[in-house]
Design goal:
heterodimer, A: alpha/beta, Rossmann fold, 6 helices, 43% helix, 14% strand, B: alpha+beta, Beta-Lactamase, 5 domains, 6-stranded antiparallel β-sheet, 23% strand, elongated
C-alpha cells in the first residue's frame, strides 16, 4: 500500500518557520493530511519523478498542486520548476511559486518557464487562498476533503 | 621743339643701298647691251650662209631627182622597145607563127626564162584563146577582152595596151600585142606579152640616187598603179584631184616640183612621163621629203647658233666679272664713301639734337627736384619735382635765392662749408632739413654740382634734391622690426638664394650656442640640424617653400653641445617679382618644453585611464556585491521578520482566550512593527535598484507617466483634487520617471490628506536647456530649515503616527533624477503646503 496515495499537495520549503506557517494555513482549510513537505529541491524532484526514497510511489498517482519556494539549498526553485515543466509526466501539474523575493528577474523567469502563479510570502495566507481559488483548484481540492475524511 | 626728325639709321642705310643699286644696275645693263650688239653681225652672217646652204641642197636634190627620173624614163623606154623587138622577132619564127606544139611553148618558155621583166609570153588564136604559153598555165585562157589584143587584131599591127592592175595579185602590168599574119596578110593569131611595171618600180626604188624616196606610178586617169612605200594603202585608188597627181598629169616632160604627197608629206618631186614615144600616158614621180633635204642643214644652223649663243654668254660673264673688278667695285666704294659721309653728319646732328631733347625731358620729368642757379645763387630753372617737393612753383622760384627754403635747422658754418666746397668747383653732397612754402619741414638729400664754361670758369650750379623723409621713416620702421626680430624668443634666420646664412637673431644664436659676433655665413644646415632634420629641411621643406612660398613642419636643431632639441619650423621663400627666390628665411619654435609637457600629459592620461579602469572594476565589484546584498536582504532578512509576524499571529490565534487585553496590544505592536520593517526593506530594495543598472534613454511622455502615477496613488485619497497641467516630454527611463511621479504625487496626497480641501497641482515647463516639473500641495508643509534632509534615506520630518512612511520615497526621487543628470528641490512652510520639483536636462 502506497503511503503517499492520498497526497494532493507537495510543499517545497527549506525554512521550517515558513513551512510551519504554510502547513498551519493549509490545515485551517483542511488540507493538512494531503500535504507532503520536502526541505529542498533535490528531494522535491525525487518525489515527483519517483526516485531515491520515493521509488515505490504509485506511478498512476498524480499531485494536485506543488507549492515551491525559490531560494533553497542544492537545487533552487527555478531549477525545479524548469524540470517539472520540461517533463511530459509532470508538465500538467499546477505549480505555485511562494517566495519572499520580489525580484523582477525571478518573476519573469518563473512565468517564462510556465509557472501557474507567483505569490510573495508576507501576505502568504490570504494570497495563497486567492491564488488557489483563481486557478480553479480550490473547489477541486476542497471537494476531495469530504472524501478523504470519509 | 622742332618737328624735323632724322630718319632712323636703318632706313638711311636702305635708301642709300637702293640708290647705289640703281647706278650699278644701269652700268651692268649698258655692258650687256654692248656685248650683245657685238655678237649681232656674226650671227646674221651665219644665218645668211646657212640659208644659202639650204637653197643649194634643195637645188642638188632637184637635180639628182630629175636626173634619176630621166634615167628611169629612158630605161623604161628601152625595156618597152626591147619587148616590142622580142615580139617582132618571134613573129617571124615559123614554129611560133604556126603555133606548132610543143615547139612553140618550149621556145616561148626559154625566152621567158631569160627575158627579165616580162609578165608572160603567149600565142593566141584569132579569138584570143591561148594556143601556146611560156609558162604552163590553164589551157584556154582567153585574152579576147584585152584592149591590146582587140586593137592588134583590128589594126593588124603591134599594139601597146593601157597599163592596168592585174587582178587578183594587184601588180601593174602593161600589155603588148603583135599580130601573126598569114601569107595573105590576114591575122592568124596574136603574140602577147606584158611588162611588169611594179617590178620596174621596185628596182627603181632600190637604186641609189632615189633610195628612201617615194616612187609613184600614175596612169592617165589618175589611178595609182604603184606606190613605194605603203603600196597596199594607195594601190588602185583613183585620185585625179590629188596635188601630186594633178602636177604629174600636167607635166609632159621631166620636171621637178615641190608638192604635197599623197600621204601629206611635203616633198621635192621629179616627174617624168614613161613610154612617151609610144603615146602612153604613164607618169613616174620620184619624191624626197623636204625634211630629209633640210634636216642636216637645219641641224648645222642649230649647232652654230648654240655655239654662238654660248660664246656670247661666256663673253658677257667675263665682261661682267672684269667690270665688277675693275669698274664697279671702285665706283661703288667712291659712291659709298660719299653717301656715308653725308649720312654720318646727318645722324650725328640728329643724335645731338635728340640727346639734348632727352636731357631736357629727363630733367623736367626727374623724380628728384632739380634747381639750376647762376653763380650768384639766383634760381634760373627748376623742374616739376622741385615744385612738388617745396611747394614753390617755377614762376615763384625763378629769380629768387634758394635760401627761401632755409629751415633754421642748420647754423651758418654749415652753409659756409657748403659754399666753400662748391665755389672750389667740388661737388657737395649732404642731408639738410628745409622748409616748404607752407612751413612744414622735410629732410632732403642734396647734391650740388658746379658747372664750368669752356674757359673753366664756374657759371652755374645744379642742385639735385631728394626727399628722404619717407626713407627715414621706413628706415626707422625697419630698424624697429629688426629689433623685434632680434629680441623674439623664436629662432629666426635668413639665408640668400644660395643657402648661405646671413642672419641669426639672438634667440637663434642662443639656441645654437653661437657667439654674438659669429659669422652666420660659416654655418651650414648640416651643422645646425641633426641628419634626419637636415634631410627633411633640404628634401621637403625648402622645395615646398620654393613651390608654395611657405612650409611648416617639425624638425630639430643641434645645440653647440650636440644636444638635439625638437622645433616647430616654418621656412619661407621670399620671391622677386619674376618668381625667382631672392632669399629664404626660417622661424622656429623650441618645442622641448612642450614635448616634455606632452609626454607628461600622456603619462598622466595613461595613469588616469588605468586608475579609472581600476576604479571602474572596483565599482563593478561593489555593484555586484551590492546586488547580491540586496538579494540577500530581500530574502533572508525578511524570513525572520515573517516568522516574528507569523508566530505572533499564531500566539494570538491559539491563545486568545489566555491573553488579557494588554498582552493582545503588545502582540499587535510586535506585528505592526514587523510589518513596518517589511515595508522599509521593500523601499530600501527599490532604492537600491534605482541606484544601478542601465537606464533607458527614450522620449518619455511625462503626461502619461504622471496620469498613471495619479491613477495608482489617488484612489486612497478620494477627497483630494488633483490638477494636471501640460507637461513637456523628457528623455529618460520611463519606468524610473514614473516612479518619481508616483512618489511625489503619493507624498503630496498623503501630506495634504488632513487639509480641509486637499488640492494637488502638477505642472511643468521648458526652461532653457532643462525641463522643470513640480508637484504642489496645500498640505502639512515642512520647516524649510530641514529641506535638505528631506531627500535623505529614512529621513522624515513627520512622525510615523502623524503620516506613515518609510522615508525612502524622496531619496528614490533624488537618485533617479540625479542619474538622469537633473536636480531636485523642495519648498514649503509648516502648515502652508509644499512644492517638490525636479529638473531634467533636455538633451539627456
Amino acid at each position: 500500500m502506497d503511503i503517499y496515495q492520498q497526497i494532493e499537495i507537495l510543499l517545497v520549503e527549506d525554512n521550517p518557520r515558513d513551512a510551519e506557517m504554510t502547513l498551519r494555513s493549509l490545515q485551517k482549510h483542511n488540507f493538512a493530511n494531503q500535504v507532503h513537505w520536502v526541505k529542498d529541491g533535490a528531494e522535491a524532484l525525487d518525489f515527483m519523478f519517483r526516485e531515491g526514497g520515493y521509488a515505490e510511489r504509485d506511478p498512476n498517482h498524480s499531485l494536485r498542486l506543488v507549492l515551491l519556494d525559490i531560494k533553497m539549498p542544492k537545487v533552487d526553485g527555478i531549477e525545479v520548476l524548469r524540470r517539472l515543466k520540461g517533463d511530459e509526466r509532470t508538465r500538467m501539474t499546477p505549480v505555485v511559486i511562494m517566495t519572499s523575493s520580489n525580484e523582477e528577474r525571478d518573476v519573469v523567469e518563473s512565468y517564462r518557464l510556465g509557472v501557474n502563479s507567483y505569490v510573495v510570502k508576507p501576505v502568504l495566507f490570504e494570497a495563497l487562498i486567492d491564488t488557489v481559488t483563481g486557478l480553479g483548484l480550490y473547489w477541486m481540492l476542497a471537494n476531495r476533503v469530504p472524501q478523504g475524511k470519509a | 621743339m622742332p618737328e624735323t626728325r632724322t630718319p632712323p639709321p636703318a632706313r638711311t642705310d636702305a635708301r642709300r643701298a637702293s640708290r647705289l643699286g640703281r647706278v650699278m644696275l644701269d652700268l651692268r645693263l649698258r655692258l650687256v647691251a654692248l656685248v650683245l650688239l657685238s655678237f649681232g653681225p656674226p650671227a646674221a652672217l651665219l644665218i645668211t650662209s646657212e640659208l644659202q646652204q639650204r637653197e643649194h641642197e634643195l637645188g642638188n636634190a632637184r637635180r639628182e631627182l630629175t636626173r634619176a627620173a630621166a634615167v628611169a624614163g629612158a630605161e623604161f623606154d628601152a625595156r618597152l622597145r626591147s619587148a616590142q623587138l622580142l615580139l617582132a622577132g618571134l613573129a617571124n619564127v615559123a614554129a611560133i607563127r604556126s603555133a606548132q606544139e610543143p615547139r612553140c611553148s618550149a621556145l616561148l618558155g626559154e625566152l621567158f626564162a631569160r627575158g627579165a621583166g616580162l609578165g608572160g609570153l603567149f600565142v593566141l588564136d584569132r579569138d584570143g584563146r591561148t594556143v601556146c604559153s611560156a609558162t604552163p598555165g590553164p589551157q584556154g585562157l582567153s585574152f579576147a577582152d584585152r584592149d591590146y589584143f582587140k586593137e592588134t587584131v583590128a589594126r593588124r599591127a603591134p599594139t601597146i595596151g593601157v597599163p592596168l592592175l592585174a587582178r587578183p595579185h594587184g601588180r601593174a602590168l602593161l600589155g603588148l600585142g603583135h599580130p601573126l599574119l598569114g601569107d595573105a596578110g590576114e591575122v592568124r593569131g596574136v603574140l602577147v606579152t606584158s611588162l611588169d611595171l611594179a617590178a620596174f618600180a621596185e628596182q627603181l626604188a632600190a637604186l641609189d640616187p632615189v633610195a628612201g624616196a617615194a616612187v609613184t606610178l600614175i596612169d592617165a586617169r589618175g589611178e595609182i598603179l604603184f606606190r613605194y612605200p605603203d603600196a597596199e594603202r594607195w594601190l588602185g585608188q583613183r585620185l585625179p584631184d590629188a596635188v601630186l597627181v594633178r602636177a604629174a598629169l600636167a607635166s609632159t616632160r621631166g620636171t621637178a616640183v615641190e608638192a604635197r604627197g599623197l600621204d601629206a608629206v611635203d616633198r621635192v618631186y621629179a616627174l617624168a612621163p614613161l613610154g612617151a614615144e609610144t603615146g602612153q600616158v604613164l607618169r613616174l614621180a620620184l619624191g624626197v621629203a623636204r625634211s630629209d633635204i633640210d634636216g642636216p642643214v637645219n641641224e648645222i644652223v642649230r649647232r652654230d647658233l648654240a655655239a654662238i649663243t654660248l660664246l656670247a654668254v661666256l663673253t658677257l660673264a667675263a665682261a661682267l666679272l672684269i667690270a665688277q673688278r675693275s669698274v664697279h667695285a671702285p665706283a661703288q666704294r667712291v659712291l659709298e664713301v660719299a653717301h656715308g659721309e653725308r649720312e654720318r653728319v646727318q645722324a650725328e646732328l640728329a643724335l645731338r639734337e635728340e640727346r639734348m631733347q632727352l636731357q631736357a625731358a629727363a630733367l623736367s620729368a626727374a623724380a628728384n627736384g632739380i634747381v639750376i642757379t647762376d653763380r650768384d645763387g639766383t634760381i634760373r630753372w627748376v623742374n616739376a619735382a622741385f615744385s612738388r617737393l617745396t611747394g614753390y612753383s617755377a614762376d615763384e622760384a625763378i629769380g629768387r635765392n634758394p635760401r627761401i627754403l632755409k629751415s633754421g635747422q642748420h647754423d651758418a658754418a654749415f652753409y659756409a662749408g657748403l659754399y666753400r666746397t662748391v665755389l672750389c668747383g667740388e661737388v657737395w653732397r649732404g642731408e639738410m632739413v628745409n622748409r616748404r612754402k607752407d612751413g612744414s619741414r622735410y629732410t632732403e638729400d642734396q647734391t650740388i654740382t658746379p658747372v664750368r664754361s669752356d674757359s673753366g670758369e664756374i657759371t652755374h650750379f645744379i642742385a639735385i634734391k631728394q626727399d628722404v623723409s619717407e626713407r627715414k621713416t621706413l628706415q626707422q620702421q625697419r630698424e624697429r622690426l629688426a629689433a623685434i626680430v632680434e629680441a623674439s624668443p623664436c629662432f629666426v634666420a635668413t639665408a640668400d638664394a644660395a643657402g648661405t646664412v646671413r642672419y641669426y637673431n639672438a634667440a637663434a644664436r642662443r639656441m645654437l650656442g653661437l657667439a654674438d659676433d659669429a659669422d652666420p655665413a660659416q654655418v651650414r644646415i648640416a651643422d645646425t640640424h641633426p641628419a634626419w632634420a637636415a634631410e627633411r629641411v633640404l628634401g621637403e621643406g625648402i622645395p615646398a617653400a620654393v613651390r608654395d612660398g611657405i612650409w611648416t613642419g617639425e624638425t630639430a636643431f643641434l645645440a653647440r653641445d650636440g644636444r638635439e632639441f625638437p622645433v616647430w619650423q616654418a621656412i619661407l621663400a621670399h620671391k622677386a617679382a619674376n618668381g625667382g627666390v631672392e632669399f629664404m628665411s626660417t622661424i622656429a619654435l623650441d618645442l622641448s618644453s612642450i614635448k616634455q609637457a606632452e609626454s607628461q600629459l600622456r603619462n598622466l592620461n595613461a595613469e588616469l585611464e588605468q586608475r579609472v579602469a581600476q576604479r571602474t572594476r572596483q565599482i563593478e565589484t561593489t555593484n555586484q556585491e551590492l546586488e547580491s546584498f540586496s538579494y540577500s536582504v530581500s530574502h533572508d532578512l525578511r524570513a525572520p521578520l515573517r516568522a516574528v509576524d507569523g508566530y505572533a499571529r499564531m500566539l494570538e490565534e491559539d491563545y486568545a482566550a489566555a491573553l488579557d487585553q494588554e498582552a493582545r496590544r503588545l502582540i499587535a505592536v510586535v506585528r505592526a512593527e514587523s510589518g513596518r520593517m517589511s515595508a522599509m526593506i521593500d523601499d530600501l530594495l527599490t532604492f537600491s535598484r534605482t541606484g544601478h543598472g542601465l537606464i533607458a534613454n527614450g522620449a518619455v511622455d511625462m503626461m502619461v507617466a504622471a496620469r498613471e502615477a495619479i491613477a495608482q496613488t489617488s484612489p486612497a485619497y478620494p477627497a483630494a483634487c488633483v490638477v494636471l497641467e501640460d507637461l513637456p516630454d523628457a528623455p529618460g527611463d520611463r519606468m524610473l520617471l514614473r516612479q518619481v511621479w508616483v512618489n511625489l504625487i503619493g507624498n503630496a496626497l498623503k501630506y495634504s490628506s488632513k487639509a480641509a480641501a486637499p488640492r494637488i497641482e502638477i505642472g511643468g515647463r521648458t526652461d532653457g536647456a532643462e525641463n522643470r516639473y513640480w508637484v504642489r500641495d496645500n498640505g502639512a508643509g515642512f520647516d524649510p530649515r530641514y529641506a535638505d534632509q528631506l531627500f535623505g534615506v529614512f529621513r522624515r520630518l513627520h512622525g510615523e503616527t502623524e503620516f506613515p512612511g518609510t522615508g525612502v520615497g524622496l531619496a528614490i526621487v533624488r537618485r533617479v533624477v540625479t542619474r538622469h543628470g537633473g536636480r531636485v528641490w523642495a519648498e514649503g512652510k509648516p502648515g502652508a503646503g509644499a512644492c517638490f520639483g525636479f529638473a531634467l536636462p533636455r538633451g539627456h
